[in-house]
Design brief:
44% of the residues lie in helices and 20% in strands. With 498 residues, the protein is α/β, with parallel strands linked by helices. It folds into 3 domains: 156 residues, Rossmann fold; 150 residues, Beta-Lactamase (2-Layer Sandwich); 154 residues, Reverse transcriptase/Diguanylate cyclase domain (Alpha-Beta Plaits, 2-Layer Sandwich), CATH 3.30.70.270. Strand 10 and strand 11 form a beta hairpin.
Length: 498
């Protein structure tokens, strides 16, 4: 369109999706505009002190956009404060603020709003000045309805294209950020990284993840972001230690205003609004759910779409972590007894000691050794001996909880980690194991029963040691003290100084 007097001038202050108003609707498509439902139409403000001009623009655009007329720039700013608009059509010269001054205000206060100028006395100088402010075109008065409609359609189509490009860039950024998840081989890290990615993508700061960890016994099962340490500690106690959530009940990404987490937050004195809950599933055992809090801003369709992209990558990462841990677990399983081996024991005991120290919980260690097991191998052979050890591991497993760890330390020696168990309770478990082993017949050659006994030493964190090596050593020495007392008995590490 050539420059000349009386031209309609369009500008875009800055592409910003946050300041967007109503949907564009049918405007912005390649085909001619057609009437749509009011909720689908773009909102356009017409600003002119001439009532005839306002009515002309309203008649030309009515039905294809939502038109609101303002008789001054000040009235237009008030209207934008009430509700955002996609486009402002404004005269250049008006009482009060001029069209150029209105454009300057819009660039500062409503950077996502497109702007158009029309005038009856535009010059090349005014056009250049407007171009420097971001203008792309202008139209002279008297306005022609057909030309006005086409220009508005073109500017809204351009706007829609820019917004779509922005969404695509955000999607690409999200996909690139998700590559971090592919490097996570620890399931707990997957949940924490996914939570960080979702918070960053949605521009939020407060969220948490709860998850079931089956690959490492008695793991923390929670990650918190945006909570201070006292609140995080209270929430961990309420959500992980005291309660247990059915993670399988969360089956879809959705927005909630009430949930068990909201109740626990209220009990901890933390007030939170709506939350976006995001379930995460591995293909086998891993399961978890994230809560991302709205923080006073509604979640949009784009927020949920980006969240689902991150969740899909996180679930692939969880599957990879599951496969990694399956392979790693096979390296930690004893071939004879099919319980954990000494290599796993060293790792698990280090993890549990750190956990006990962090939460100031007790941890009891049992060191067990079969009495005179060499006679079984000598009399019945190593095949029967291996079968006996396998049956013994089954007996020991039946005497402890699922969260406890049983490992074959070597030969006929076994070690048990009793989670959150005091020394007195550990001694009671050891006595139950001793009695059960003594009462259990093991099958010998030709079905002949073999009766065995076991000696057990018990140590407990922190009273008998504050690190893995000291605890295992004290339990081992207590076991040998039990043997020196005639075998088939339980000895406490507290007796070592006697």
């Amino acid at each position: 369109m050539p420059w000349g007097p009386g031209t309609l001038l369009f500008s875009r202050a800055a592409a910003s999706s946050e300041a967007l108003g109503a949907p564009i609707g049918s405007l912005g498509k390649s085909e001619p505009m057609s009437p749509s439902s009011a909720s689908d139409l773009a909102r356009v403000l017409v600003v002119d002190d001439d009532r005839l001009i306002r009515e002309l623009v309203r008649d030309a655009l009515e039905g294809v956009v939502r038109v609101e007329c303002c008789d001054s720039a000040e009235a237009a700013l008030d209207a934008l404060a009430r509700e955002p608009a996609e486009l402002v059509l404004s005269d250049l010269t008006m009482p009060g603020l001029s069209g150029v001054e209105l454009l300057e205000r819009l660039r500062r206060e409503h950077p996502g709003t497109d702007f158009a100028l029309f005038t009856g006395n535009a010059t090349i100088d005014s056009a250049v000045s407007a171009l420097r402010m971001g203008a792309v075109d202008y139209l002279r008065k008297p306005l022609r309805a057909e030309e006005l409609s086409l220009v508005v359609e073109r500017i809204l189509a351009r706007r829609r294209l820019l917004l779509e490009n922005e969404r695509l860039r955000e999607a690409v950024d999200t996909l690139e950020a998700c590559q971090t998840l592919m490097r996570c081989l620890d399931p707990g890290e997957v949940y924490a990284v996914a939570l960080d990615l979702v918070l960053h993508s949605l521009g939020r700061e407060r969220g948490l993840a709860l998850f079931r960890r089956t690959s490492i016994p008695s793991s923390d099962g929670a990650a918190f972001r945006g909570f201070d340490e006292p609140a995080a500690r209270a929430l961990r106690g309420a959500l992980v230690d005291d309660k247990g959530f059915d993670l399988e009940s969360f089956d879809d990404t959705r927005i909630v205003s009430k949930s068990p987490v909201h109740e626990s937050l209220a009990e901890a004195g933390v007030v939170c609004d709506d939350a976006l809950i995001v379930p995460l599933r591995g293909r086998e055992r891993e399961a978890g759910v994230m809560w991302v809090f709205a923080e006073g801003r509604d979640f949009g369709a784009d927020d949920i779409e980006r969240t689902r992209i991150i969740a899909s990558y996180a679930e692939v990462a969880l599957h990879n972590a599951e496969r990694y841990y399956q392979a790693k677990e096979r390296a930690f399983i004893d071939d004879v007894t099919e319980v954990y081996n000494a290599r796993f024991l060293l790792q698990a005991s280090e993890h549990e000691v750190q956990r006990a120290a962090r939460y100031e919980k007790p941890l009891s260690v049992l060191f067990l050794d079969l009495d005179r097991f060499k006679l079984v191998n000598d009399q019945y052979g190593h095949l029967i001996g291996s079968q006996t050890l396998r049956k013994l591991s089954q007996v020991l497993s039946s005497c402890i909880r699922q969260i406890d760890t049983l490992a074959r330390y070597g030969g006929d020696e076994f070690t048990i980690l009793l989670i959150d168990t005091t020394h007195e309770a550990g001694l009671a478990v050891a006595e139950r194991i001793r009695r059960t082993v003594a009462e259990t017949p093991f099958e010998g050659e030709g079905g002949e029963p073999i009766h065995l006994t076991i000696s057990v030493g018990v140590s407990t964190f922190p009273g008998h040691g504050r690190d893995r090596t000291e605890l295992l050593d004290k339990a081992d020495k207590a076991m040998y003290r039990a043997k020196s007392h005639g075998r088939n008995c339980v000895c406490s590490a507290a007796e070592l100084g006697e």
